[in-house]
Amino acid sequence: MNPAFPIPFSKMSGSGNDFIIIDHRRGFLGGVDLPSFVRAVCRRRFAVGADGLILIEDSETADFRWQFFNGDGSRAEMCGNGARCAARYAYLKKIAPAAMRFETVAGLIEAQVMDGSVKIKMTQPDSVLLGQKLLLAGKERVFHSINTGVPHAVHFVADAGAVPVVDWGRPVRFHEKFQPAGTNVNFVQVMSRDSLAVRTYERGVEAETMACGTGAAAAAIIGALLGHVAPPVTVVTSGGARLTIHFVLKTGQHPEITEVFLEGRANVIYEGQLAAECLLDVGVREQEEKKGEQSGRWRKYLAFGHASAEFTE
């Protein structure tokens, strides 16, 4: 079943992470194959293009609830930058007050809109595992993992700008150790006692994105646990934007992280209407593959996940 067009939407950016946001309180996409719809409209050049799509819906327990989809149509439990954009959207559309709460799969999120900036309270991080050894690109490297609403792997490097994020990120993202959910992968450079540079390979986008809010939080928390930084931590993203991660670190034999907040700008880029033609040309890539007319770029794309990555004891 195809949706009824035109469909009003807003395009927003959270530090370079861009999203299509749709007011879905009337549920007009009921019966639509949502993953296929999301994949179609999130295609760059063929449609609007975005890292993800957010549906704002009614909630019985909070100001609203969302459905969040990655650009490949998969659902994600949480997205920090998406949450900041959703909060500002809801405030601007008078769906929620400046201080709000909304439902996600990861749990209830609290947000405070302050002009163009939004501060959200993250879910309690868990599943922390430090010091995992990974054989990557012919060298043993140390990775750490944490769930900040979605799973993340963190690797500290001397120069984040020199990291081949896609080539290193893909084999880690798909590694059996992180299955079945897979993981996002963050390459982190310590800039000072209160700042980090972070580049992220995002699960569901299957590429490096300009920013990742949950990844920024993961990098800051792991950095604090290892003694590299102390809160609040400023994270410089791939796109050059700055996010601030606030949290409380209780040190001791069993360190504990609480009260995690993510703060940064959430910008409205434009508003428009999706036309039915945004669904055209879906499957062009698949058709070309069947014909064997694969460019070098597509051959490289199709090879993802096959690079060598191996955990060692």
Low-confidence stretches: 288-313
Terminal Cα separation, in Å?
50 Å
**Rg from C-alpha positions?**
19 Å
Strand content: 35-45%
Note the overall shape.
globular
Provide a descriptive summary of the structure in words.
- This protein is α+β, with helices and mostly antiparallel strands.
- It has two domains: 7-117 and 268-287, Diaminopimelate Epimerase, Chain A, domain 1; 126-263, Diaminopimelate Epimerase, Chain A, domain 1, CATH 3.10.310.
- Helix content is 19%, strand content 41%.
- The protein contains six helices and 18 strands.
- It has an 18-stranded mixed beta sheet that branches.
- The radius of gyration is 19 Å and the shape is globular.
- The N and C termini lie far apart (50 Å).
- Mean pLDDT is 90; it is low at 288-313.
What would you say about this model in short?
It is built from six helices and 18 strands. The chain has 313 residues and is of the alpha+beta class.
Write out key terms for the chains shown.
313 residues; 18-stranded mixed beta sheet; disordered C terminus; 18 strands; Diaminopimelate Epimerase, Chain A, domain 1; alpha+beta
Provide the fold topology.
Layout: E1 7-14, E2 17-23, H1 34-41, E3 52-57, E4 64-70, H2 80-92, E5 99-104, E6 107-114, E7 117-121, E8 126-136, E9 139-147, E10 151-156, H3 165-173, E11 184-192, E12 195-202, E13 207-209, H4 213-225, E14 233-236, E15 242-250, E16 256-265, E17 267-274, H5 284-291, H6 296-302, E18 309-312
Parallel strand pairs: 2-3, 4-5, 10-11, 12-14
Antiparallel strand pairs: 1-2, 1-17, 3-4, 5-6, 6-7, 7-16, 8-9, 8-18, 9-10, 11-12, 12-13, 14-15, 15-16
